[in-house]
Amino acid sequence: xxxxxxxxxxxxxAGGIEELSPHVRSYWQLVxxxxxxxxxTLFFGAIILIVILCAIFAPWxxxxxxxxxxxxxxxxxxxxxxxxxxTDELGRDMLSxxxxxxxxSLLMGLLPVVFALAIGGALGVVAxxxxxxVNMVIMRVMDVFYAFPSILLAVAISGAMGGGMxxxxxxxxxxxxxxxxxxxxxxxxxxxxxxxxxxxxxxxGGTGSIITTHILGNVLAPVFVYASGMVSVSILLAxxxxxxxxxxxxxxxxxxxxxxxxxxxxxxxxVVCALPGVAILITSLSFNMVSDGLRQAMxxxx
Amino acid sequence: MKSKxxxxxxAHNMEIVPEGDPRDRGGPRQPMFMVRGLKxxxxxxxxxxxxxxxxxxxVDGVDFQVxxxxxxxxxxxxxxxxxxxxxxxxxLIDRTEGELIFDGEEVGVRNGLAMRDFRKAAQMVFQDSxxxxxxxxxxxxxxxxxxxxxxxxxxxxxxxARELLGKVGLRPEVFGPRYPHELSGGQKQRVNIARxxxxxxxxxxxxxxxxxxxxxxxxxxxxxxxxxxRHFNLTYVFISHDLNVVQYISDRVLVMYLGEVVEIGxxxxxxxxxxxxxxxxxxxxxxxxxxxxxxxxxxxxxxPPNPINPPSGCRFHTRCxxxxxxxxxxxxxxxxxxxxxxxxxxxxxxDPAAGHTLAGKVPPAFEAPVPVxxxxxxxxx
Lengths: 302, 381
What we know:
The structure holds two protein chains of two kinds.
Chain A: H1 4-7, H2 27-36, H3 39-56, H4 58-61, H5 94-130, H6 132-146, H7 150-161, H8 165-192, H9 195-202, H10 207-243, H11 255-262, H12 270-297
Helix pairs in contact in A: 3-5, 3-12, 5-6, 5-8, 5-10, 6-8, 7-8, 8-10, 9-10, 10-11, 10-12, 11-12
Chain B: H1 2-6, E1 33-46, E2 51-66, E3 71-75, H2 82-89, E4 97-102, E5 105-106, H3 115-121, E6 122-125, H4 139-149, H5 154-167, H6 172-175, H7 185-197, E7 203-207, H8 215-232, E8 235-239, H9 243-249, E9 252-257, E10 260-266, H10 267-272, H11 277-284, H12 325-329, E11 344-345, H13 374-380
Parallel strand pairs in B: 3-8, 3-9, 6-7, 7-8
Antiparallel strand pairs in B: 1-2, 1-4, 4-5, 9-10, 10-11
Helix pairs in contact in B: 4-5, 4-7, 5-7, 7-8
């Protein structure tokens, strides 16, 4: 086989090669590069990392047993004796409880979003790509769920199924499926009409192959960013459920639950009582900020 | 893959497909593509029950043949159904009516040509070079996608993609791993052409493939297309609104108006002596290079009528300077039983039996013969 490229007349040389840098960067490398040069996102990302590490290594990080009560040292202020962040209404160490509480709060913040991302995203992509009747059935079912305010729906489902962490997870997952499904559907509908999908069909690509090769890559970014913003919502909702007694059962430390039980002592030691709320605030704010940074770094227009 | 065992994969080893193409089934006299009575009506829905209240007659009874090895140019105004026709030919949208026969076999029916094999034999290049490449895939992966879904191994498909990039004038090692946003419009369109060629097609439909490019790049890509046609023994259907480009690249030209074929014939005959009043007006609307031949009045005015409610009789009668009563009542037809090389038109003026007063004494289209562009003369030599 001869090198036909070199035998082509000079007019066929597309030129412009010099303008291109020799370094070829893939899409994800580019996203990483942008994230590395975004100090705000890095800072909040570091906070999330610390919270996650605390949650994983809680038994080693926490200075005391989070369930050890001490009736003498109740509701002590920050820095009292060995209690770095004071004690709660049963004399338990607040710092240890906050560290242990990160476990259930993060679990309740991340897992429902991950599950909803998988289920809602898949439904949305299928609805968007197939169109027609399939789309109508899926999206109208989603609309039914959408009609309820999210906190009301979560409370209703949890209440119907009873308390406990698993039911809380389940109800939050159901709450998050419709919005993620809708985002995925909208993004897919936009991508589906583009010529490269037509070209893939003209090349004989099947539905599954087109979705995995051509649709998912273009739909993932907006859906993923939206989902990351939902983590903070999920943490807040989970805290709300625990606050109402529908989430984690005592004495397991959980930020929402702690806030709920400590509220009676708000006039005795307001600073300590607010600490779980501060933890929720910082964590959800961090997830929001990182989500924002991701959105910019993963901008489709490039 | 089943079909692979049967047929040698000739074009994949990048040699010029010889005259006796082993993929040729019908012989040289069998048209590559026969289109018979092709119709596409889009329903217009409305009302409380979402009923069909009207039909857009986007393509309404189109008959033509694509001869093996030729370039058939399709011209017409915006909205005349050119792109719908292209998508119909590619089976990207379902037709309302009509037959599509590829090399003697009807496509997508029992005992006909399987859709999977048709997809390999016919490919399309889209107008919008930006949206026709997946922004998240390196261009070599976009090219390799087609062969991959037809069962080629990942490594071989990538090799083929790189080879084709070379064929379309892009250095494979430089451009292969790049993403579409890093390429210029002309480079992207070259990638699109390579993607179409990756299936080793026999027929390539080019839907306004060079219209979005600037003039110098357009010329390069046109030359590339001519070169590739010889190299791969291709047949082109070249759709464009640009009359000069169609004249340059086509062997035969088909003129469409409002979803119908009004004239079809060899390029030189159509450009030198157009028959249908619409073709005449279209050709006159080209701007002259000579400043003395200034055009003050547009030879054709107004927009094409609404394809939802096309005019009765001849669809062009509302804008035609020769229109008579017969044109309003009776729709002219393309003459039947003609050779593909014939120059035919659907106009009452060329049918003595129709009763048009100008039948047989049609005034000439141009006072002076239109000079053939120099580029075409050079290309023909």
